């Protein structure tokens, strides 16, 4: 291999902004697992990533990695960074808000929002799929779940974007100091905002997810105020940014594969399968990390306790050892869906069901209503979110908009959060 793996790894945030990053990610996968530097191991094969995400000898708490000096260890009580028993307790309380049954009332609202947004697209086009469709859909959905007033949506969304631009799960990389500082301030502002929101006297429900968080458990086992606030910040950030990326990546994939776009337009019930293929083919969440808490071996490589494991989920989702024709976009795959876009194991994404419902509604409506859409490739720009991947600008030319047609309930229903690695 002629690829300089160290150079590719160091450029990961930049690579994920490229239009075609996967050949370079394949180089990293084919050589993995391998030590990128002292105390940092790259893992990108599906088999190894899946096993690590489920292994009890692995921690989600990055502060346990020996590469961090004691004085700069990232302190966090976020749900995604916790291990048992703290994670088990919080997860059991928070998950009540994301069961299939709990999400059922959100489906009609998602469908209505999708069609309202398409109705508002100027007839003379072009329109920016991110600005005019994906972003307002994802933002309004997560804000409705948390009871955030409509007049505050853009404010909260702006903080979330700033927070994502400074989040990088590695101690090295290309996130500059200004982005990191801006992200810290945005996170603090979100915490203050939710604290004020909780303090407001209300007669109406605050939002189904927030209500569940406030009243989950009993007197002896309830979420503290600080836990509720931290989970709210996590949910608005993860539920907004990654869903925008899902819709943006999916629309791009459909436009570049017009045969699949036509199939979906003719049969909107294919939308859930399209969602899962988009998650596999061009994953919004590309990188996550774990820490070995004891010595172990992965793929023949010795991993020492304290090593930081960098999991390249997007590369694993194109592993030819698991997926036939992995670089082809094919929602009609007959093999079991085993992508890791929502991670796996104890930290399997709580909001996966809601994201699937949004993606299915968005893809079905886009395919069925937008007449002769064409990607304006010269205007495609990817955003600077270091461990996520999705367009910041995705402009589409089109010939008109069809009237909305009823969407079968099977398109958006049945996306419960408890289902891992299976197609609805």
TrEMBL record:
Tree of life domain: Bacteria
Keyword Heme: yes
Keywords: Heme, Iron, Metal-binding, Monooxygenase, Oxidoreductase
Function: Involved in the coupling of aromatic side chains of the heptapeptide of vancomycin.
GO molecular function: heme binding; iron ion binding; monooxygenase activity; oxidoreductase activity, acting on paired donors, with incorporation or reduction of molecular oxygen
Pathway, per record: Antibiotic biosynthesis; vancomycin biosynthesis
Record bears the keyword Heme: yes
Organism, as annotated: Amycolatopsis orientalis
InterPro entries given in the database record: Cyt_P450, Cyt_P450_B, Cyt_P450_sf
UniProt-recorded name of the protein: Cytochrome
Record family assignment: Belongs to the cytochrome P450 family.
């Amino acid at each position: 291999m002629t690829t300089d793996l160290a150079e590719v790894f160091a450029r990961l945030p930049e690579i994920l902004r490229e239009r075609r990053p996967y050949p370079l990610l394949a180089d990293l996968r084919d050589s993995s697992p391998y030590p990128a530097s002292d105390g940092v191991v790259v893992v990108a094969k599906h088999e190894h990533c899946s096993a690590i995400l489920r292994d009890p000898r692995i921690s989600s708490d990055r502060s346990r990695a020996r590469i961090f000096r004691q004085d700069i260890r990232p302190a966090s009580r976020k749900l995604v960074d916790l291990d048992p028993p703290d994670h088990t307790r919080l997860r059991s309380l928070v998950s009540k808000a994301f069961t299939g049954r709990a999400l059922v009332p959100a489906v009609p609202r998602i469908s209505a929002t999708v069609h309202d947004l398409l109705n508002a697209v100027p007839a003379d086009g072009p329109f920016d799929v991110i600005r005019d469709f994906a972003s307002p859909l994802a933002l309004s959905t997560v804000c409705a779940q948390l009871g955030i007033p409509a007049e505050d949506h853009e404010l909260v969304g702006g903080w979330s974007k700033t927070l994502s631009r400074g989040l990088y799960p590695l101690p090295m990389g290309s996130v500059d100091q200004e982005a990191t500082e801006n992200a810290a301030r945005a996170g603090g502002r979100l915490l203050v905002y939710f604290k004020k929101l909780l303090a407001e006297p209300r007669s109406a429900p605050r939002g189904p997810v927030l209500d569940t968080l406030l009243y989950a458990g009993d007197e002896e086992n309830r979420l503290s105020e600080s836990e509720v606030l931290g989970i709210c910040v996590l949910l608005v950030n993860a539920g907004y940014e990654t869903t925008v990326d899902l819709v943006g990546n999916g629309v791009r994939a459909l436009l570049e594969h017009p045969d699949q776009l036509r199939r979906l337009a003719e049969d909107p019930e294919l939308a859930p399968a399209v969602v899962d293929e988009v998650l596999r083919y061009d994953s919004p969440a590309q990188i996550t990390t774990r820490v070995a808490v004891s010595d172990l071996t992965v793929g023949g490589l010795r991993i020492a306790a304290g090593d930081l494991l960098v999991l390249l989920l997007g590369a694993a989702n194109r592993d030819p050892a698991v997926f036939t024709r992995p670089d082809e976009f094919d929602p009609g795959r007959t093999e079991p869906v085993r992508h890791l876009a929502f991670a796996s194991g104890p930290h399997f994404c709580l909001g996966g069901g809601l994201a699937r419902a949004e993606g299915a509604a968005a893809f079905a409506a886009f395919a069925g209503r937008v007449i002769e859409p064409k990607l304006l490739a010269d205007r495609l720009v990817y955003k600077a979110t270091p461990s996520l991947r999705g367009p910041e600008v995705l402009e589409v030319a089109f010939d008109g908009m069809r009237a909305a047609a009823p969407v079968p309930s099977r398109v958006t229903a049945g996306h419960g959060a408890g289902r891992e690695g299976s197609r609805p």
